[in-house]
Specification:
Rossmann fold; two-stranded antiparallel sheet; alpha/beta; 289 residues; 10 strands
Length: 289
């Protein structure tokens, strides 16, 4: 198996007009002299940022695709209170603006949506609303569809009450860096990354919980091919719920990644996960029948 390629610098840093704010984004051109075969929209997880996905962008570019990764509002270099959203629909509006910007990188060519954890929740929730212009496939890693991480009952109750009376209330997220990956080097990178944070806000928690329920209830509406990359040993998000939701979608390929924790793109043997991504991209441009 080949080694993981390492990160690349973005071809361009840009901002995307989301109406009330400008979202930070990074674009990556495909390697080689040919034009892109399509574009991949990369949406990061909660409490992190798109800069952590430059190695994944390298994989996408090597496969002949353009990539657009972005900082979700309240994350990274995008404006907004850290980890806060008023309604989950705000994320969906932002996501629509990002897809519009991505389409300009590869006009009239296939678009693939790739999300990790909370980014997978945004991706799946958007797909539940029906076909999206130009989107031909999706890739979701360690989707945040339910927590495996134990959350004390009092914290859930506090979040529900505070969501109404003090929506910006912050609590420690309870995430441990050692639960993210088995790779010591990647753990050290995460610990030193000042653009990541370790809090969760009350309104975000209740809005994300509603979105999780909606994805489960409406998963059958997602008709495009979906590739699931799920760490079998993920202690943060619940692999069993990912399997249940995948089983409700008509065109899913489920990859149960033995020995891997939450951040499958940062695992020691991530090269095999990148191969799964490359195969999914190849399938997205292969004529059916």
């Amino acid at each position: 198996m080949p080694a993981a390629p390492g990160p690349i610098e973005p071809t361009q840093e840009l901002t995307i007009d989301a109406g009330d704010i400008a979202l930070y984004a990074e674009s990556f051109a495909p390697t080689g002299k040919r034009g892109p075969q399509g574009v991949v929209v990369v949406t990061h997880g909660y409490a992190e940022h798109c800069g952590r996905y430059r190695e994944l962008a390298h994989v996408i570019a090597d496969a002949g695709w353009a990539a657009l990764s972005w900082d979700v509002r309240g994350h990274g270099q995008s404006p907004g209170p850290r980890g806060f959203v008023d309604h989950f629909s705000t994320y969906l509006r932002d996501f629509a603006a990002v897809r519009k910007a991505a389409a300009k990188l590869a006009p009239s060519l296939p678009m693939v949506l790739l999300g990790h954890s909370h980014g997978s929740l945004i991706t799946l929730r958007a797909l539940c609303d029906g076909p999206l212009d130009g989107v031909t496939a999706g890739i979701v890693s360690s989707p945040f569809l339910a927590l495996r991480l134990p959350v004390p009952g009092y914290k859930k109750l506090l979040a529900r009450v505070a969501s109404r009376v003090s929506p910006g209330l912050q609590q420690p997220s309870g995430l441990r860096i050692e639960d993210l990956t088995n790779d010591p080097g990647k753990r050290a990178e995460r610990a030193a990354d000042t653009r990541c944070f370790d809090i969760a806000t009350a309104r975000w928690f209740t809005e994300a919980s509603k979105a999780q329920a909606e994805v489960y209830e409406r998963a059958a509406r997602i008709r495009i091919p979906l590739t699931w990359l799920v760490g079998h040993d993920d202690p943060i998000t619940d692999p069993a719920q990912s399997r249940r939701v995948a089983d409700r979608t008509p065109a899913s390929t489920y990859n149960d990644l033995a020995g891997m924790k939450h951040e499958v793109f940062n695992e020691i043997d991530r090269a095999r996960v990148f191969e799964d991504v490359t195969r999914a991209l190849a399938a997205a441009i292969t004529p059916k029948g």
